[in-house]
Write a structure and sequence with these properties.
single chain, 524 residues, alpha/beta, Alpha-Beta Plaits, FAD/NAD(P)-binding domain, 3 domains, five-stranded parallel β-sheet, 13 helices, 29% helix, 24% strand, globular
Length: 524
């Protein structure tokens, strides 16, 4: 097959007939079939918005086309197959135990199960079917289940998100492709394999996770839900078991810690057993809501109805020296109460696959580091907790919100403008400046002025701010060696909670990496 890049198609002519004609003109060969490899939108010229494609094309005179081509965008299709490493020879006396069923834990378990290792996955929260009911009840009643919520439970925090799958990770070993193949095998749309910014939405990801669970079980794996790791059993600096639910011991030679970025109790437990960890910088800020139509029009002008809901990515360096950027942008979505601890409140964004809600939202976050929270190992964790306690108090237990114009004036909002909050979980008016130091608030205001030069009316007075966005990434890194193993032998830190990923796809890739290291070392 021939790979051809940079094939530009007008959005009004995006159909198979026009694409075939275009490919024939470019390759000057008899095309028998083609497959989309990549698809993105070029909206730099609002009067001529284009789809930019990359194709693999079956053509009869392949060799002559390649040899006669003077374009760097036409070449023989490379082999992009993911290869599982050869199996090691060390003997396993017990099942591999994976703590956490978020993306890193699930994809680690999936690859291990495919290779016959029959892992045991434990999850402190509920399976999807019960978890969704628990979370929906929380949105309505504000009654929090600290073990099963937006952060904890089957699928991890990504279950209640936009389901974004894009990543900037270099994927020379095609682990990302393997992850997408697994997603598609379990019900995700095939378009995720080629879209520049793929997503599946909270509605589809829930179905995919259930299918993955059932596949893992069919391959010999096992899940224990409502099962919390409460202690470790370590002998001679090697894991030999874990305690669950404060009573039962599960023996294990291998423990994969896919615990997620909100597993604060587990961080303290690991420190008790002297696992090497270090504090790391992260970012905090506020969610902002704009009308989806406003964002779409700004990005695409009058073509917006012909294109998918628009996203954006914005960055700014403030005069305070802090970086400010948009994070986890959710076109056509909700802002959700994502709390996991009583008397503390945190927000996140969530969209369905269609992204057809009235507002688009993102987090506007500001970088923080040990200058803000000190040099102690858990300084960042406690900094997050303090912010979330303030947010809970400001909103009287509900999501605290403020109009952007009032945020600039440093006064509490008392009424809405034309932008109506689209939240899962109720809200109260507040002055969100009370969450932050003056320079963090100043950084946000400066950035908003700058962002409005890139997206028209981004700093509109009645845009809705919601707080607090404090869990952009883990405040802790659980250190590991080149073989992905911690200083306590047999323990493999994994995914976003361990500090090695940032989102669904990178977490899945890291889960695959950890599974590979186990496969390379141990027999089934």
């Amino acid at each position: 097959m021939i790979r051809i890049r940079q094939v530009k198609i007008p959005i009004l002519k995006d159909n198979k007939e026009y694409i075939l004609k275009k490919l024939n003109n470019l390759l000057k060969g008899e095309i028998t079939d083609y497959k989309i490899v990549k698809k993105s939108i070029d909206a730099r010229d609002k009067n001529n918005i284009l789809y930019v494609y990359e194709f693999d094309v079956e053509v009869k005179n392949e060799d002559s086309i390649i040899s006669n081509s003077k374009s760097n965008d036409i070449f023989k299709t490379p082999n992009e197959k993911y290869i599982v490493p050869d199996m090691g020879t060390n003997k396993l006396n017990n099942r591999i135990v994976i703590v956490g069923s978020g993306p890193s834990g699930l994809f680690c378990a999936y690859l291990l199960a495919e290779q016959g290792y029959k892992p045991l996955i434990i999850e402190q929260g509920e399976r999807i079917e019960e978890r969704v009911k628990t979370v929906e009840n929380f949105f309505k009643t504000n009654q929090l289940n600290e073990l099963s919520n937006v952060q904890f439970g089957e699928g991890g925090a990504g279950t209640f998100s936009d389901g974004k799958l894009n990543t900037l990770v270099k994927d020379k070993e095609y682990r990302g492709k393997k992850a997408f193949e697994i997603f598609i095998e379990n019900g995700a749309p095939e378009e995720i394999m080629y879209l520049q910014k793929p997503h599946i939405g909270t509605d589809i990801i829930r179905k995919v996770i259930v299918n993955m669970r059932n596949k893992i079980i069919n391959m010999g794996g096992e899940f224990l839900f409502n099962t919390k790791m409460t202690d470790l059993v370590i002998e001679d600096n090697k894991i030999t078991g874990i305690e669950v639910n404060n009573k039962e011991i599960i023996t294990c030679d291998i423990l994969v810690l896919a615990i997620g970025h909100s597993a604060r109790e587990t961080f303290y437990l690991l420190n008790k057993y002297k696992l090497d960890m270090k504090s790391k910088p992260f970012a905090v800020g506020l969610r902002i809501e704009h009308p989806r139509e406003m964002i779409d029009k700004s990005q695409y002008d009058d073509n917006y109805k012909l294109l998918p809901p628009a996203s954006y990515k914005l960055t700014y360096k403030a005069s305070t020296g802090r970086g400010v950027y948009s994070f986890c942008m959710c076109p056509g979505g909700y802002v959700v109460n994502a709390s996991s601890e009583k008397n503390r409140l945190v927000v996140n964004g969530m969209s369905n696959y269609k992204r057809d809600e009235i507002n688009s939202n993102s987090a506007i976050v500001v970088t923080v580091n040990n200058n803000d929270y000190g040099d102690k190992l858990f300084g960042g964790v406690e900094f997050q907790r303090d912010l979330e306690a303030k947010a809970y108090k400001l909103g009287d237990g509900l999501i605290p919100i403020q109009l952007y114009g009032d945020f600039k004036k440093n006064i509490e909002s008392t009424k809405l403008g034309n932008v109506i909050p689209n939240t899962q979980g109720n809200y109260n008016f507040a002055n969100l400046n009370e969450l932050f130091s003056k320079d963090i608030s100043k950084s946000i205001v400066e950035a908003m002025t700058n962002f409005s030069k890139k997206i028209k009316n981004f700093d509109r007075e009645d845009a809705i701010l919601l707080g607090v966005e404090s869990r952009t990434s883990s405040p802790i890194t659980i250190e590991r060696d080149d073989n992905k193993e911690s200083n306590v032998k047999g323990i493999y830190p994994c995914g976003e909670g361990a500090g090695y990923a940032g989102g669904i796809t990178t977490s899945a890739i890291d889960g695959i990496k950890v599974a590979e290291e186990i496969i390379k070392k141990y027999q089934r």
